[in-house]
Amino acid sequence: MALTAQAAENSNWTNVEALRHGDRIGVVQADQKRIEGRFDSANVSTLVLESQGLISIPQDRVIRVYKIGMSRKKRMVIGGAVGLAAGAAVAATVSRRLNNEGFFAGSNGGAGTAAAVGGGAGIGLAVGSFTGNGYKTIYQRQGGR
Exposed site from 3, 10, 58, 90, fewest CB < 10 Å? Predict the structure, then answer.
């Protein structure tokens, strides 16, 4: 059983070794200190990251390694832009179909377009805000050693 757990942990460590140079990562150490920086290198016994200089951490001191994804702000900007484009596409399509109904034509024409574009942008912002947490666990030490 212990051999199987060790083999699983070693194969999990290969995820760390497979990271690309420059990937943004975080490391939780055995003393619960957290270091975030850019991945430099890893081998079977050591992880090296750049965080105000190169920091070398022995594998036996590493509890968890996680990859830092996109920030919430960036996801919101992307979601808002996609929503804005989708709202504009909906407004353009619907306004051609309903141009005699008054909401997208005449004196109210701008209000319908603004509502569709603004609604799309708002939905995109919300979706961007609530999707993902930006962190993905790459390595988790097995057991409570």
Answer: 3
**Sign of the four-CA dihedral 118, 120, 121, 122:** positive
Specify the 3-state DSSP secondary structure of 140: strand
Range of the domain at 37: 2-68
**CATH number, domain with residue 20:** 2.30.30.720
pTM of the model: 0.56
Distance (Å, whole) CA 129 – CA 56: 34
Total length of the chain: 145
At 44-95, the pLDDT tens digits run 999 999 988 999 999 999 999 999 877 778 778 888 888 888 888 877 777 6
Count how many Cα atoms sit within 13 Å of the Cα of residue 56 in the half-sphere of its side chain: 4
